[in-house]
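RECORD TYPE: inverse folding
INPUT: structure tokens
STRUCTURE:
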């Protein structure tokens, strides 16, 4: 990630994290999160189980991704459940990796890339390389619709524009909601659009989308999403640490929670998931396999 993103993230988040209570307090922990659909699903799932099964108060601090890494590294946050590795958040891990405790994946088979609606002809736009065509650039208005400027996906997208020599293109920063609104407007009008994307995400259930091929591998391959906690978290909250260590979901379960949340809410979707997966949740909590 370019240094200016890192510096900006720390500057913007300093005031927000300054007031976070000490994390060693009994029965109270604080997780950072960013308003991305997959992060909301797994973070609120962990929050619900920790509160209900361990009796903790779990506060969620909404913050830019860079602020979260710095918060966990300094101990101002207890943890975060959305560390994309090995490529997407590589710059953050290189910066603070020695100052956090990585307790492994929460799910695997994640992916980053650029997508287009399926109605964009594949014989015209199949690869990122195809975006260099004059007629394609004109149809797209010279824009790639992105997300939060501090996201690893945006860093990779900026690099993709350079590596593929996409002269005349602008990478548009927005929130996830802004990206989705742009995608919805385009699909309603049957207009061409390229958006930054990641899997898992409920948008693939709502719209017929396809990833563009990335022959240079600039946007990375399959990723694993990890759980990070501050140093000494395992000593202050050993039972929660053990729970997080065991909490691993199939990516299909993450997608199911997100899809259900679009019809109801994340709170209702999570309650339904816990009810339908009692044995798995019990294992996360107790470490015991039902019937063993």
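DESIGNED SEQUENCE:
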């Amino acid at each position: 990630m370019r240094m200016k993103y890192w510096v900006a993230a720390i500057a913007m988040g300093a005031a927000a994290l300054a007031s976070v209570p000490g994390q060693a307090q009994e029965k109270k922990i604080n997780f950072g999160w960013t308003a991305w659909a997959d992060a909301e699903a797994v973070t609120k799932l962990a929050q619900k189980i920790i509160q209900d099964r361990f009796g903790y108060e779990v506060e969620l601090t909404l913050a830019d991704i860079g602020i979260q890494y710095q918060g966990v590294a300094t101990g101002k946050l207890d943890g975060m459940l959305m560390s994309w590795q090995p490529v997407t958040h590589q710059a953050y891990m290189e910066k603070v990796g020695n100052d956090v405790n990585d307790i492994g994946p929460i799910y695997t088979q994640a992916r980053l890339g650029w997508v287009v609606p399926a109605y964009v002809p594949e014989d015209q736009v199949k690869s990122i390389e195809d975006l260099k065509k004059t007629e394609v650039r004109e149809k797209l208005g010279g824009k790639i619709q992105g997300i939060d400027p501090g996201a690893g996906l945006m860093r990779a997208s900026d690099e993709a524009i350079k590596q593929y020599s996409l002269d005349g293109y602008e990478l548009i920063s927005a929130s996830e909601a802004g990206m989705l609104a742009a995608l919805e407007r385009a699909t309603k009008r049957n207009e061409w659009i390229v958006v930054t994307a990641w899997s898992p995400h409920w948008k693939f259930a709502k719209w017929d989308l396809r990833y563009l091929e990335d022959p240079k591998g600039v946007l990375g391959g399959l990723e694993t999403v990890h759980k990070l906690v501050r140093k000494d978290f395992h000593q202050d909250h050993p039972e929660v640490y053990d729970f997080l260590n065991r909490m691993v979901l199939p990516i299909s379960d993450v997608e199911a929670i997100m899809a259900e949340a679009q019809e109801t809410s994340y709170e209702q979707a999570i309650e339904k998931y816990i009810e339908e997966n009692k044995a798995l949740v019990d294992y996360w909590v107790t470490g015991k396999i039902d019937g063993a």
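NOTES: The CA atoms of residues 111 and 222 lie 5 Å apart.
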